[in-house]
Amino acid sequence: MDYKTISLKMLDTLQQGKKKLGSEARKRMASFVGSQLTGNGAFMDKTGSDDLYYTPFGLMLAFVLQLNINTMLTGQWLENRTPKCRIWFTVLPLFAAVCYVNC
To answer: Tens digits of per-residue pLDDT, 66-88?
Structure first.
């Protein structure tokens, strides 16, 4: 029986996909993901605004692509949204993984 969460399954799938990409494709993907990070530490939606929905996916891709991001800034941005919703508990493991990689 598989006891992995959906987030862990997604990370595994992304890791496997990354292995299939050539170095140029990985560079382009990393460049695009990095370009979606806003000055507030969040990842942007299609209109360029900070977005709580897109941020966990951005964190996941940042982790897989080993991007350096300002985790302090991202953490502050997430904390400012915590009282408004409960997504923090969904995002926290991804955020912790990105912080670990960036240390």
So the answer is: 999 898 898 888 878 765 555 55
Q: Tell me the residue ranges of DSSP E strands in 12-87.
A: 43-44, 50-51
Under a CB-based contact definition with an 8 Å cutoff, are residues 82 and 88 in contact? Answer: yes
Let me know if residue 27 belongs to a domain.
no
User: What CA–CA distance (Å, rounded) separates 8 from 93?
Assistant: 10
- What confidence score (pLDDT) does residue 94 get? 62
Q: Do residues 14 and 64 make contact, with C-beta atoms less than 8 angstroms apart?
A: yes
pTM (2 d.p.) = 0.77
CB half-sphere exposure, 20, CA atoms < 13 A: 6
User: Which tokens is 82 given?
Assistant: 């915590």
Q: Which tokens is 16 given?
A: 């496997």
Question: Does residue 77 lie within any of the structural domains?
Answer: yes
